[in-house]
Structure formats: structure tokens, C-alpha cells
Amino acid sequence: AQSVTQLGSHVSVSEGALVLLRCNYSSSVPPYLFWYVQYPNQGLQLLLKYTTGATLVKGINGFEAEFKKSETSFHLTKPSAHMSDAAEYFCAVSDRREYGNKLVFGAGTILRVKS
Amino acid sequence: DGGITQSPKYLFRKEGQNVTLSCEQNLNHDAMYWYRQDPGQGLRLIYYSQIVNDFQKGDIAEGYSVSREKKESFPLTVTSAQKNPTAFYLCASSPLRLKSLSGANVLTFGAGSRLTVL
After folding, report:
1. What is the rounded distance in angstroms from the CA atom of residue B104 to the CA atom of residue A103?
2. What is the pLDDT of residues B4-60, one digit of tens each?
3. Residue B4 to residue A43, Cβ atoms within 8 A
């Protein structure tokens, strides 16, 4: 069974600093990979996804993530944090061998941005 | 605008009562999903449906029931058998993925319904 581990339930950065949110997956075959963002009491919004091809994926709001097969990782980064980035971030995987689009989510990382 | 509408946004229930959460989408998506969110646990799949009149259990289906009588609607009933129903419930939809290795379809999420059992 696939699983997702997000290291750090809470991450705090200063405004303008680098954001790094970590995600590792466990799967015998590299899955499809996603990052979603959730603002308080709202649904999830897709930031970016990796399916195939270029391993560095750019998403919305200046975020990007790099798929590293050797490390089974898909860490999310942003060069300069903004106050509006404060939210909860979820890494998710989908088994490319299966029909359908079921997602398995990590536990989430709450990002706090300090002024 | 196309999207997913969940209602009610907030719901309070007494122990022993069944409640039904509504999920409607106008995206013309075939597949629909229900997830439960608890603090520090991420999202866990309750039920999903890939076509009208058909649905499958997810990882935590016990104490829940669903129906899929129309393509655009996928209501979730939280029954009295659910031991710890207080949570945030999220509905999602996506196009149907018919073949493996055919590329990933993105899930679109509703704004969620927060259920509190008193």
C-alpha cells in the first residue's frame, strides 16, 4: 500500500525566507505526486502535480517541487515566503497503475509566516 | 462558474442521530469522492464513486453510507454507528480515468462541511 510522510507538522519561516516543506512517499512504483494547499475552513486547492517528464515542476503562487526517485521525495519549495502563504499544505500520491484517481494524503504541514 | 457545492457548512448533531451531508457538482465529472479530515491526520477516503449507481468503500467506510443516483450528486450519510463523527468532511470530483498509465486527473474539492456531535 502506498503511504506519504510529511516531515514536520508545523514549519515557521520569516517573511522573505525560503520555504521548504518535505514529502516522502512509499511505493514500489513511482506514483503520481501532488501538492495541495488549504486555507482555514476551506477546501483544498491544487498547487502542482508531477506525472511524467521534467522532474522539476512549477506551480501556482511561486511554488515548485522536485521529484527525486532515488530519494522517493517530492519536496515543496518557494524562494521567498509571503504572509499570504500561511496555510496547511498536503502532499498526496495516486497509484499510476490503478484505474481511477484516488489520492492518499500525508498528514499535512502547517506553514506559519512571521513578519 | 463550475464547481462543487457542499452543504451545510456547519452542522451540529446529537449522539444517536443520522445526518446527511450534501455534495453537488456542475463540472460534468464522472467520479466523486468523500474524505474525512482530522487534525494531524490528513485526509482519509470514506467512499468514492466512478459512475452513477455504483460506489466503493474507501479506507474508513464504517459508520457511513452514500448514494449516487445522479451524476452531479453524491450525498454522504453519517450514521449513529460512526463512533467518532466530529470532523471536517470534504467532497471532491474528477474526470474518470479509464486506463492505468493514462495520466493523472486532478481532484477538485468543495469547501467542506464541519460536523460537530454534541
Report:
1. 10
2. 999 999 999 998 899 999 999 999 999 999 999 998 889 999 999 999 999 999 999
3. yes
